[in-house]
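To illustrate the input format used throughout this study, we show a single complete record. The first block contains the structure-token representation of the backbone; no residue identities are included at this stage. The design step must infer an amino acid for every position from geometry alone.
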């Protein structure tokens, strides 16, 4: 079973939503399966980031977050998407079997159109590049959040169309692994935590910054003595860092009244810092050895490329490209 997933480099540190929604499960899956590939989707970031230095910094940052969270280059292949340019060739081969209508139904494209934004071809064709990411390595299982499920369905559709068009079995149909047990992590404003909403709590920002985010979590204006809703975002976040018994006790205290939000925030901050402290240390160690990180990504790319080459060759042969 070959597991594969990717993360777009779009910020200086991943946030709690990314960790509980994706990264934590990447780590678990690398232990459960013989082969795991995790990459940094720097080509994908081109639809939004137009600054080369920024892209480099964000790409390194995801690599550091991967390593800090426990992805282990001995167990998983870690690489940069753009180190395997073959993915662009497969994107083209898939493009020519992908109906416009399928891409017009893609969520990201539709949402951008609904917002009246001008959409470039990169964003329109994003699902094809993502399909190529997956199909190029004959991945069987793709762990993604619920929001990415449509992309995996499209990937399967494209693989089927290619195999059918050229009467071959050059591409393997992947299965999505929807990371369900990870409920949507709320942001500081109560909406889904997302970089786009500027409501994130970063895993590895400076402690001051994390404190500022935690203190800014929205709460209702109920006084200390009044009962509180244990399903409010502040408690949902607190629960992520607490065992079941603690969660029950906290819910009871919330319902009973006499619990101030200030106290919960202070405790949450401590729990967050504590939870990530070992990872933070590991991140700092890797950060001080950028050459080692680069070497890990290069070795990962070599392995990934060796997997990609025969798959692409199979597609080229089937399609009558080359000699
Ligand atoms: P953002 O919304 O901040 O741009 P991404 O879309 O890059 O985050 O998400 C990367 C991964 O993290 C995806 O697998 C996504 O499902 C997961 N993820 C992001 N935000 C959350 C959240 N608030 N709760 C759970 N999972 C999340
Ligand atoms: N589109 C994914 C996201 O925004 C990132 C990604 C790119 C990906 N290529 C992938 C995820 C291939 C899984 C497999 O989160």
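Output of the design step:
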């Amino acid at each position: 079973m070959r597991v594969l997933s990717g993360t777009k480099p779009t910020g200086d540190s991943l946030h709690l939503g990314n960790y509980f929604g994706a990264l934590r499960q990447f780590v678990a899956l690398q232990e459960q399966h013989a082969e795991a590939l995790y990459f940094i989707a720097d080509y994908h970031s081109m639809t939004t980031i137009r600054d080369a230095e920024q892209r480099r910094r964000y790409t390194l940052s995801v690599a550091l977050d991967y390593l800090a969270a426990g992805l282990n280059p001995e167990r998983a292949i870690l690489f940069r998407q753009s180190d395997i340019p073959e993915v662009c060739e497969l994107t083209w081969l898939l493009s020519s079997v992908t109906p416009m209508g399928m891409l017009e139904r893609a969520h990201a494209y539709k949402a951008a159109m609904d917002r009246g934004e001008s959409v470039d071809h990169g964003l329109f064709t994003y699902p094809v590049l993502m399909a190529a990411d997956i199909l190029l390595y004959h991945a069987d299982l793709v762990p993604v959040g619920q929001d990415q499920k449509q992309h995996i369905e499209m990937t399967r559709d494209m693989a089927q169309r290619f195999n059918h068009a050229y009467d071959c079995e050059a591409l393997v149909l992947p299965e999505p692994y929807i990371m369900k047990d990870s409920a949507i992590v709320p942001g500081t404003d109560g909406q889904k935590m997302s970089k786009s909403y500027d409501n994130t709590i970063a895993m590895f920002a400076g402690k001051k910054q994390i404190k500022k985010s935690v203190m800014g979590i929205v709460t209702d204006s109920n006084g200390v003595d009044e009962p509180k809703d244990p399903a409010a975002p502040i408690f949902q976040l607190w629960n992520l860092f607490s065992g079941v018994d603690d969660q029950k006790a906290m819910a009871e205290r919330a319902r009973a009244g006499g619990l101030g939000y200030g106290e919960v925030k202070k405790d949450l901050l401590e729990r967050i810092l504590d939870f990530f402290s070992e990872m933070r240390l590991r991140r700092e160690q890797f950060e001080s050895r950028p050459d080692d990180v680069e070497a890990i990504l290069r070795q990962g790319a070599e392995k990934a490329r060796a997997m990609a080459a025969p798959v692409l060759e199979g597609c080229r042969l089937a399609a009558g490209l080359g000699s």
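Structural context for interpreting the output: The longest helix spans residues 290-319. The chain has a mean pLDDT of 95.
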